[in-house]
């Protein structure tokens, strides 16, 4: 899809243009020293690649819902853009469901997964007709109470009409973890889903379907960043085999849809997109041909792979200093926008690009230096000992591939404000204007008033007026 092939050169060129235009148009500057930028062209390309990859391997007419994992980029305009590209939403909290609804996603394009759904969340999802994957036997019990109005397990309140929500169970095929423990969901002791290889678990799952004709889906999400394709494919193969076993034992195709989760890893080492959706889809068809012969509808839940490469954090170098012989650029991007990278740098390294004060790529000999964030602890480093053209005061640094799980995942350390987020696209109407790039506000920068309000500003006297009343 990339105009230069799959090397990502088109994307890199668009990014450089956007950084320069952001400086020229004043989105970035001394008073707004950090922003998140989203490449709308790139997001559309990835969505098209995802659709094409699965269209290329499924039997004609197979229902396929690509549900974007909202947690990867919980921004309403992003969800709306993806909706326009035919992508639904996978939500895992009341907040994420509210975002999906605000973006206009319909219940039939929405899937609810979460390991800790409350009774009221389940009730709402079933009332709306949203697909739900039950995480564990206790949750299935709660769903029973909602689906069987006369059940003694009724959950209080009026019994509801039988829901049209497609319902399934999440299983953990326990195929093992990848290189990053925190994103490995198919380990033996993962907190997610029904652990299929535990004693009696497989039989429990089969019985659950035998007893509930309304259970029509099966779900697994076997991991995120750090999981090799072969392990993802194995997780899907085991899930498919279980669906086949269940349908065989019931004697009819009660499971009509398999939700294969997301988790396609992202290459953070260069602009090249690898692996691609097409590679994953082909690997799946090779390993699990029956999944694509038209008997099953499919749901996917990709997050990081749809957005990561289309986002860039750009931050101003406030000061350039030196300590113990090490040059240090003190910037405005640190733990508040790159939390995982700062706390676990070995697992989440980010590429850094250097720009001069006018937003043009910085040239010059590379010097080993630290790129520090603004937070008040020594470990707040975006990159440590990185070879880059020597950064100077007033320059800009860009943290690349940060469109998922970064600037939309603010961490409120030091009460640092959430940066503004802007989408960009080539401006064909005014090609000579400021780099020929147009921006649209995705999210305004957080104001100081909002920080105070979110920090108990309305309750300033709450603690000083709390007397030990009544306790003598
Ligand atoms: C996080 C998550 C996803 C998305 O994972 P990515 O690695 O971002 O693709 C999909 N499904 C579930 C259930 C998840 O928890």
From TrEMBL:
According to its UniProt record, which cofactors does this protein need? pyridoxal 5'-phosphate
Task: Using the record for this protein, list the coiled-coil segments as residue ranges, or answer none.
Answer: none
| Domain Orn/DAP/Arg decarboxylase 2 C-terminal span(s) in chain numbering | 309-403
* N6-(pyridoxal phosphate)lysine modified-residue sites: 71
Residue intervals of the Orn/DAP/Arg decarboxylase 2 N-terminal domain: 63-307
Q: Where is the active site?
A: 376 (proton donor)
| Keyword terms, alphabetized | Pyridoxal phosphate
- What biological-process GO terms show up in the record? lysine biosynthetic process via diaminopimelate
Q: Which residues form the signal peptide?
A: none
| Statement: the UniProt record of this protein carries the keyword Transcription | no
The superkingdom of the source organism is Bacteria
Tell me the GO molecular function terms: diaminopimelate decarboxylase activity
Q: What is this protein called?
A: Diaminopimelate decarboxylase
Identify the taxonomic lineage of the organism of origin: Bacteria, Bacillati, Actinomycetota, Actinomycetes, Kitasatosporales
């Amino acid at each position: 899809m990339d105009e230069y092939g799959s090397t990502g050169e088109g994307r890199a060129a668009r990014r450089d243009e956007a950084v320069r235009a952001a400086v020229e148009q004043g989105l970035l500057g001394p008073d707004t020293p950090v922003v998140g930028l989203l490449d709308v062209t790139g997001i559309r390309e990835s969505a098209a690649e995802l659709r094409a990859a699965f269209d290329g391997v499924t039997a004609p007419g197979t229902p396929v819902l690509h549900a974007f994992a909202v947690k990867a980029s919980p921004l309403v305009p992003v969800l709306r853009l993806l909706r326009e590209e035919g992508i639904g939403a996978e939500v895992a909290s009341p907040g994420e469901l509210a975002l999906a609804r605000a973006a206009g996603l319909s219940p039939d394009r929405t899937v609810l997964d979460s390991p800790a759904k409350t009774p009221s969340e389940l009730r709402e999802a079933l009332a709306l007709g949203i697909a739900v994957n039950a995480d564990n036997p206790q949750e299935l019990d709660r769903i029973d109470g909602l689906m069987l109005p006369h059940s003694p397990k009724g959950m209080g309140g009026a019994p509801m009409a039988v829901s049209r929500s497609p319902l399934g169970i999440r299983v953990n095929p326990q195929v093992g973890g990848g290189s990053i423990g925190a994103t490995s969901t198919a380990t033996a002791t993962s907190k997610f889903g029904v652990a299929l290889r535990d004693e009696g678990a497989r039989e429990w799952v089969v019985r659950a379907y035998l007893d509930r004709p309304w259970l029509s889906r099966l779900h697994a999400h076997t991991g995120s960043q750090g999981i090799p394709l072969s392990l993802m494919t194995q997780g899907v193969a085991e899930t498919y085999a279980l669906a086949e076993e269940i349908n065989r034992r019931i004697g009819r195709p009660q499971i009509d849809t398999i939700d294969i989760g997301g988790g396609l890893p992202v290459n953070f080492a260069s602009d090249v997109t690898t692996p691609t959706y097409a590679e994953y889809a082909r690997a799946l068809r090779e390993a699990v041909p029956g999944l694509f012969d038209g008997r099953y509808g499919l749901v996917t839940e990709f997050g990081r792979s749809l957005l990561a490469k289309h986002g860039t954090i750009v931050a101003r170098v406030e000061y350039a200093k030196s300590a113990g012989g090490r040059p240090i650029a003190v910037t405005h991007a640190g733990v508040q926008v790159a939390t995982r990278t700062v706390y676990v740098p070995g697992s989440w390294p980010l590429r850094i690009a250097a720009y001069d004060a006018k937003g043009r790529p910085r040239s010059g000999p590379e010097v080993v230096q630290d790129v520090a964030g603004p937070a008040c602890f020594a470990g707040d480093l975006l990159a440590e000992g990185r070879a880059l053209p020597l950064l100077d005061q007033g320059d800009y640094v860009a943290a690349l591939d940060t469109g998922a799980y970064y600037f939309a995942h603010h961490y409120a350390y030091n009460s640092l404000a959430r940066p503004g987020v802007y989408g960009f696209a080539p401006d064909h109407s005014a090609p000579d204007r400021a780099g020929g790039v147009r921006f649209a506000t995705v999210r305004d920068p957080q104001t100081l008033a909002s920080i105070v309000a979110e920090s108990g500003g309305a309750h300033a006297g709450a603690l000083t007026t709390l007397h030990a009343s009544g306790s003598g």
